[in-house]
Design goal:
Shape: globular
Distance between the termini: 57 Å
Number of strands: 12
Number of helices: 9
Structural class: alpha/beta
Radius of gyration: 23 Å
Helix content: 40-55%
């Protein structure tokens, strides 16, 4: 069995299409098909079945995919560790984070870190809460910012970096837009612009509304903080967003009003796999982040 066969197999399994896999691998389609066929012959099983124009993993193919991904992830980490051993200041940090942190927080902390370690490279991956957990466990990333912080999980562990307050955002000219603070029940007759199902901010806002005595009426859903902020600014409804998602300038901006009953917050944490040591360069970044956010709390 060749390493190349595993690479090709995993790529085809993820794309569910030989041609698309070949294009990403920059090789001929026939070469990919041949390697998959040889792998199946060596294993004595069918790894894929045809389903329309796509390929679908067989049950044994799904089992083999899990092992192949672990093997390739371990190999990639081994290569990174060798490079770090030769020069830890030129390693690569594979970092995941939710979309809402990509506006200001991630650029700020990365820029601060690169002032001290200018040759360290980053590979970023954005995703929703369950996607970040999955990618971390699979080994696609080494560290992940996540919100809310998972209190108990067998395969990941970490630390809470900060607790962030969420604000009501209202269209300009809204009757409550000039208030210093409001109670959430004052928005119970409003149409809400919320994140789509699967985004961690949605249940936080939903539960806060229930705590305030009402179920929010959803008029629009979005998958980006910029989209939600823009729709509210355009008068399409109201919403609740974290302060870090409101660091934006432009001609059309919603009003930001503090919520005092109930106070709505979210935790932001940093997590990694609990069953193994971090790569050296990721550990350096991890320790930097703990110092960075500790100093922020003291200000």
């Amino acid at each position: 069995m060749e390493l190349r066969q595993l690479y090709y197999f995993v790529k085809v399994a993820r794309k569910e299409h030989v041609t698309q896999a070949a294009e990403e691998l920059h090789v001929a389609q026939s070469a990919v098909s041949r390697q998959i066929h040889q792998l199946e012959e060596e294993l004595g099983v069918k790894l894929f079945v045809q389903k329309g124009r796509n390929l679908q993993l067989t049950p044994v193919g799904s089992l083999f995919l899990k092992r192949a991904e672990v093997i390739l992830a371990d190999l990639e980490r081994a290569v990174i560790e060798i490079h770090e051993f030769l020069d830890p200041e030129k390693g690569e940090i594979r970092l995941g984070f939710p979309h809402s942190l990509g506006i200001s927080l991630i650029p700020q902390v990365v820029a601060s870190f690169r002032k001290l370690h200018p040759d360290v490279k980053f590979r970023f991956k954005q995703g929703m809460y369950p996607t970040l957990i999955r990618d971390l466990i699979k080994g696609d990333i080494d560290l992940a910012f996540i919100s809310p912080f998972p209190k108990e999980h067998e395969q990941v562990c970490g630390e809470v970096l900060l607790t962030e307050e969420l604000y009501a955002i209202l269209p300009p000219g809204h009757p409550l837009s000039g208030e210093h603070a409001i109670e959430l029940h004052q928005l119970q007759e409003e149409t809400f612009v919320l994140f789509s199902e699967g985004y961690s901010l949605r249940p936080i806002v939903w539960d806060a509304c229930l705590q305030a005595g009402f179920e929010p009426k959803i008029g629009f859903e979005g998958e980006e903080t910029d989209t939600i902020r823009g729709l509210v600014a355009a008068g399409m409804g109201v919403s609740v967003l974290p302060e870090l998602a409101l660091h934006h300038t432009g001609p059309l901006q919603p009003a930001k009003v503090r919520i005092i009953n109930p106070v709505v917050t979210r935790t932001i944490g940093l997590i990694h796999r609990s069953n193994e040591k971090l790569p050296l360069v990721a550990k350096v970044f991890h320790n930097f982040l703990l110092r960075y956010f500790h100093s922020e709390k003291e200000l």
